[in-house]
Amino acid sequence: MSESALSHPMDAMEGSPQQNAFDYRPVPVTAPVTLFIGLASLAGLVSVVGLGICVFGIILGAACLMKIRRSRGELSGKVPAAIGFALSMIFFVSGSCLHAYTFATEVPEGYRRVNFYRDISSKGLIIKNGQKTIHPEVIGLVDENIFIKGYMYPTRQTEGISNFILVKDSDQCCFGGRPDLNDMIFVKMKDGMTIDYRPGLVSIAGGFQLRQSVGPGALEPLFQLDGTFFDVARSSF
To answer: What's this model's pTM, rounded to 2 decimal places?
Structure first.
């Protein structure tokens, strides 16, 4: 019997497919990151900002999967990258549909949607015949039933509120000092309705009116809303 026939069996296994199957293939760091972003994309169902996370997960996942494919088997991590990419895509589509539906159905019947900044605040006061006056487009809202969003100006009272000041945002211009006249609306709830203070964005519906001054030293909004509906804002736009 030849010497080669007596060789140790382990020698024959060197370089075999069985051994190569255990070779380590590196995982690109973007693969687990894509999976994490995919899970975080659940935020897309909660807020419009969360949709940005979904978009980031889709882009990152697509780039990671392309990199793995081009490596011709030298890189692993396809499964977590694919799962993360799929989750980001699913939450983006479902979140977009949810927010669109919410936006389309949140306005009570018989009311017109008005954007506080675009339709009121940005119009400002204009000079006419040497005097300051309200912008004609804002005056055009008088006696209309409108639906608007804003922030409750904080006061010491937090429960059983029958009237309050609605401001356009929660930035320093409105909460850190005295808001401009065109950045606030006096809301008076009708029919004995009372509400509790809410720190975030709220939705109000009611009849829009011009308002007389309420006296020196106090917040003096030019506009009033006779509120018939109040709720925490269902969408952020």
So the answer is: 0.75
